[in-house]
Amino acid sequence: MQSYNAGDAEAAARHYAPDAFVFIPGQELRTGRDEIRANISRFMADPNFALAYENERLDVAASNDLAYSRGLLTVSYTDPATDAVRTIQSHYLLVMRRDPNDGWQVVQDISF
């Protein structure tokens, strides 16, 4: 979260596994860390961009190598059609996998 709010797309993208995907309604499916990084960079180019997660649940598998988190997502951005700042709320589901070298990484990021 800190990397998003600090405007650091590279650090934000490192939270994603190389084979991760991100689904945001109304956008193309982003697959792989490079596409995800490019998409994060586009968001961060908007001076009104802000992101906040409110976690409702976090479960870790007994194997301790998979986990999921779900909750509420709040995003502010500049609407390209009106140039007005919009704030929307939606729900999210993150599936994370523990990498032995890099720790927990997001493999599926779904907003709905």
TrEMBL record:
InterPro entries, A to Z: DUF4440, NTF2-like_dom_sf
Name of this protein: DUF4440 domain-containing protein
Coiled-coil spans in chain: none
Phylogenetic placement of the source organism: Bacteria, Pseudomonadati, Pseudomonadota, Alphaproteobacteria, Sphingomonadales
Gene3D superfamilies assigned to the protein according to its UniProt record, in alphabetical order: 3.10.450.50
Pfam families: DUF4440 (PF14534)
Record-annotated DUF4440 domain positions: 2-106
Species assigned in the record: Parapontixanthobacter aurantiacus
